[in-house]
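Appendix B, Record 12. Input sequence as logged:
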Amino acid sequence: MPPPSKTDHLPPSHPAHRQRPKSPNRVLAEAEAQWIFTEAELDNSPTIQDGMSIAEERETRAKGINFIASVGVMLKLPQITLATAAIYFQRYLMRGSLKKARGDMPKLHHYQIAAISLFLATKVEESSRALKEMIIAFCRVAQKNPNLLIDDQSKDYWKWKDCILIHEDVMLETLCFDLTVESPHRQLFDLLKCYGVEHNKRVRNAAWAFITDGNNTPLCLLISSRTIAVAGVYAACRSYGVALPDDDKGRPWWEAQGVRLKDVRRAMEFMEAGYEETSNKINGVPAAVVQGAGKGSGSEGERSIYVASPFVIPPAEGERRASNASSIGEKRKREDAQPNVVVNGDDKAPASANGMVEMAEQDSKRPRLGGMSNGQPPPQTELEGRGAEHDVKHEEERLRVQNGDRQAEAVQKTAHANGTLALPRSVAKDDAEVSEEGEVEE
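Logged structural output:
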């Protein structure tokens, strides 16, 4: 039996204890306080003073942040670098204008400002990429073509390169060379470790998403980064019912971090307003219009994107199969060109004579068959009670099945008269063609 190993050189064992997050750097806190504005000052930015509306200015800021995020995904940049670039972008627009030049600050597009901000952030956060790779990513994201081939001698390439290298000094002067920022993501991780919830996946992801979504808004211009981190933890713990312990003096955990509950609630209300505004829009269309347009406008991944989202949850895949003859899915229903009015108790009459002509032309086109049919239209039948919900494709398929059944019955009667029950091969072939057509045709 080997002798026991000596452990005299090892430190004595002691229970693990969690360290408090580091206190904010006084110098960085004072520098950050210079970039904190009121909501009135935020609504009076240089771009708004030059004639742009508040809503349009907010939307332009969000587009610039989305540009940074898209380039960051393409270049595989860390989230902290993207957050730093977003802070530079937001701060620049508090001194520069998107409408016209001001003093030594030229008029730049919001994509150009975002590109310069990201270029500086990669150097500050020590996650640099080759300038050529960044310019190619800028061109691809700006032109919305991720597979775009860019030559380093092309006009677009040199346009972006000159813009970044020439206006980098302008960005530095506008930011007052204040490039070191306290990232709320770093402080969030320290908070999670301090209170022992860093392994709680739901709380960690929810807090991280809260702070990341805050990059798309001017929240960094209203409250400090430490307050944003505390607000993210507060919102995540409140959503999942996790209670964090108080300190030794009996103070709530947020007060122990030097943050007032008033500022935390202000940050949460600001983010909640942004979530509601975003959830009421789907590609610029109000949600009320989308809800009236019918189902099928969403996907499974959109069910849990926004908080309290009024999106219409799409039906299950099996609910969209309404045909008994084949597996053809329902198509989106067409809206009438003219509004309907009630005339002599009939609510199907069009509002004008032109509307009657258009509806008559539509009715005359409905009995036509698809290109894979035999060219003979099925007998017209009167459809009652279906109205605008009538699907021409389903009706044609039903009529095909009826015609096939009639032919089969006629063949069976002929077979009984001849003393045999065998079906001709031509009939079986016709049935097979109908079934295959129903499965392939959309």
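The first strand starts at residue 281 and ends at 282.
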